[in-house]
């Protein structure tokens, strides 16, 4: 029995230590709409994250623009970060009818994103 308990306890402690420094990240791949500029995108994104902070003040975001590789002109990745899955669930519960949802309704006019986004667990490297 001890041979089973020690590895299980070690794995549990490892997972707990990972979650202590982890963020939850939702990732979208998007494309700037024809006729729109990075300035339009930044204005929209900044209003979106401000609205998201109205739901959860710990919300943060980043936009990643490609600088090398096989990416189409105008493509980018946008990421929303929340501290944990509990915060993420609370954010989703508050989303319907929120200012964030209102901004999302017009998002495709500036930068359509793929229909599917991914939810990731981001862990800091040491």
Folded structure, characterized:
The chain is of the alpha+beta class. The chain has one domain (22-123): Alpha-Beta Plaits. The chain has five helices and four strands. It has helices spanning 2-20, 38-55, 85-94, 99-105, 107-110; strands spanning 22-31, 60-64, 75-82, 118-123. The protein has a four-stranded antiparallel β-sheet. Helix 2 (38-55) packs antiparallel against helix 4 (99-105). It is globular and about 35 Å long.
Short description:
The chain is of the alpha+beta class and 126 residues long.
Strand content: 15-25%
Class derived from helix and strand content: alpha+beta
Strand order within the widest beta sheet: 2-3-1-4
Work out the number of β strands: 4
Number of helices: 5
Shape: globular
- CATH fold annotation: Alpha-Beta Plaits
- Percent of residues in helical segments? 40-55%
Count of folded domains: 1
The SSE order reads: HEHEEHHHE
Subunit arrangement of the protein:
single chain
Largest sheet: 4 strands, antiparallel
Write out key terms for the chains shown.
disordered N terminus, 5 helices, alpha+beta, Alpha-Beta Plaits, 126 residues, 4 strands
Give the secondary structure arrangement, pairings included.
Blueprint: H1 2-20, E1 22-31, H2 38-55, E2 60-64, E3 75-82, H3 85-94, H4 99-105, H5 107-110, E4 118-123
Antiparallel strand pairs: 1-3, 1-4, 2-3
Helix pairs in contact: 2-4
